[in-house]
Design goal:
This protein has 158 residues and is of the alpha+beta class. It contains 4 helices and 5 strands; from the N terminus they run E-H-H-E-E-E-H-E-H. It has helices at residues 17-30, 42-56, 111-125, 140-145, and strands at residues 7-11, 60-66, 69-78, 94-102, 130-133. The chain has a 5-stranded mixed sheet. Strand 4 (94-102), helix 3 (111-125) and strand 5 (130-133) form a beta-alpha-beta unit. Helix 1 crosses helix 2 (42-56). The mean pLDDT is 91. Residues 7-158 form the N-acetyltransferase domain.
């Protein structure tokens, strides 16, 4: 009989950046992006992005451990935006969550929910007034349970 393992969520260390980056890349594969569409330098690109975001955008990553092994991760940061931000921070300061990933053998145990809740709390602590994330079809119900709502964002495939 298998006993229930304890899930522990903690802040990732910079030494775990490569693992967090690997999880982020695995997420793309899980949602159907073919390997030939992923830049062969994905690790280098992601690590550079994380370093810059840590320096400029309050970047943090969190990992979930089960029995001492990391089985999931998430990244978050201030959202740097796609247009000039003319709104005062007390009115709208966005946080952005990305790369929510749990290894397949550990899914459907509430790990993604715990990781996401931890990032929401962190972003709130650094003054964010709103959190944005892009949900995969599998992740959408998890985020809705946490109070996320569908937005008015629209896209057009060309």
């Amino acid at each position: 009989m298998r006993t229930q393992s304890t899930i522990q969520v903690r802040e990732a260390t910079p030494q775990e950046d490569s693992l967090v980056a690997k999880h982020s890349c695995n997420l793309w594969r899980d949602i159907g992006v073919p390997d030939d569409a992923i830049d062969p330098n994905w690790l280098e690109i992601t690590l550079q992005f994380m370093e810059q975001a840590r320096r400029d955008l309050f970047y943090k990553a969190f990992v979930a451990e089960v029995d001492g092994s990391v089985v999931g991760s998430v990244s978050c940061q201030l959202y740097s935006g796609l247009y000039p931000n003319v709104l005062m921070p007390h009115y709208r300061k966005y946080g952005y969550i990305w790369g929510v990933y749990v290894e397949p053998a550990y899914r459907r145990q509430g790990i993604a929910k715990q990781l996401t809740s931890t990032t929401v709390n962190y972003l709130k602590a650094v003054g964010c007034t709103q959190v944005i994330l892009n949900a995969s079809p599998l992740g959408k119900p998890v985020y809705e349970q946490l109070g996320f709502s569908s937005s008015n964002a629209m896209h057009l495939d060309l």
